[in-house]
Amino acid sequence: MNKYLQQLVSLSQIDQKIDSYAPRIESINRNLQLKKDEIIAIDENIEKVDNEISELKAQIANTNSHINEFNAKIKEISKKTSAVKSEKEIKALNLEEDLAKDQLEAANEEINRLERIIDSKNELKSELEMKKTQIQNSLEGISNEVADEIKAIDDERSKIYDQKEKLLADMNQKILTFYEKIRKWAKNTAVVPVRKQACYGCFMKINDKTYAHIIKSDDITTCPHCGRILYKETTQE
């Protein structure tokens, strides 16, 4: 393999490594963000539960107001009953009193029901707060791990950039421009191997004449189908 082709192969491999760092960092940060998103979701749920509890307490306050009205009504009926003498009026008052007592009992049962719901909501809130605390406690450790992983990637990337700079300084500018032109559309497949007499960029079969040039590796040869730069791997047939 001639010098220029070897440089292109090396440059392509370096560019592939450089381009792999961004998704690696994104993946690492995604794990951290998932934990932060969990906390945000828990906070939203806690806020929702708090609002529901406030609404339930408002319902209890409203029901208590009705209970006071019912109690006052029962007392008022009791006073009226002692004052009336007509059997018909007494029956009417008794019916009114029974209705008020039924309403009072129903109101008390409703308060008990609402208080049970509030208790369950408070239990749910406690569970959410406990889960949030657990995630927050683990978040610091995860943040430190993420920072260490990103630092390791940055150190590795810095070394790769140094290798690229040294390689670029020794490369023919016309060949480099040719490579960059192909890389604009081919991305990390600008330079690809030929395997089983096929371009591993477009996977089309290479004709015998072009394949013979690739095997010799005396010149830079491009795929007649897609235009990618081709080379013959020494470990492949």
TrEMBL record:
<dbReference type="Pfam" id="PF02591">
    <property type="entry name" value="Zn_ribbon_9"/>
</dbReference>
<feature type="domain" description="C4-type zinc ribbon">
    <location>
        <begin position="198"/>
        <end position="230"/>
    </location>
</feature>
<dbReference type="Pfam" id="PF24481">
    <property type="entry name" value="CT398_CC"/>
</dbReference>
<feature type="domain" description="CT398-like coiled coil hairpin">
    <location>
        <begin position="11"/>
        <end position="184"/>
    </location>
</feature>
<protein>
    <submittedName>
        <fullName>Zinc ribbon domain-containing protein</fullName>
    </submittedName>
</protein>
<dbReference type="InterPro" id="IPR003743">
    <property type="entry name" value="Zf-RING_7"/>
</dbReference>
<keyword id="KW-0175">Coiled coil</keyword>
<feature type="coiled-coil region">
    <location>
        <begin position="32"/>
        <end position="145"/>
    </location>
</feature>
<dbReference type="InterPro" id="IPR056003">
    <property type="entry name" value="CT398_CC_hairpin"/>
</dbReference>
<dbReference type="InterPro" id="IPR052376">
    <property type="entry name" value="Oxidative_Scav/Glycosyltrans"/>
</dbReference>
